[in-house]
Amino acid sequence: QVQLVESGGGLVQAGGSLRLSCAASGRTFSTYIMGWFRQAPGKEREFVAAIIWSSGRTYYGDSVKGRFTISRDNTKNTVYLQMNSLKPEDTAVYYCATKGPTSSSYNDWGQGTQVTVSS
User: What is the pLDDT confidence band of residue 1, given thresholds at 50, 70 and 90?
Assistant: First the structure.
């Protein structure tokens, strides 16, 4: 099992930036992909971005392409989500999650961090 702790959420005005961090501990050697998801009140969970731990290849949801950047620091077992040009519709609880190489779904999830973008 991998333990995940998110940080960096907060309140920001539209057009501003935030950087989220997700620190992983435990069985981190089993991590293949780390991803960010978000869920706004009354809405389904939405894929935001993911990164393949070994290669650094990245993937993004359509709603954040060109504005958000996912990156990782292997030495710190930490993944980051740099969020620029934030919009009120980006308001949500953001979660990081991991998936192993043979898993069909994300196995381990963090507790989430709130991001609120005011207009």
Answer: confident
CA 34, 40, 41, 43 dihedral sign is negative
Q: List Cα–Cα distances, 88 to 43, 47, 80, 91, 93, in angstroms.
A: 14, 17, 21, 6, 13
Supply angle C-alpha 107, 112, 106, rounded to 5: 15
Tell me the pLDDT tens digit for each residue of 12-55: 999 999 999 999 988 776 678 999 999 999 999 999 999 999 89
Q: Of 31, 13, 2, 10, which Cα lies nearest the Cα of 87?
A: 13
Facing residues of 92 across strands? 115
**In terms of Cα–Cα distance, which of 74, 67, 52, 89 is closest to 19?**
67
Residue found under tokens 């969970």: 45
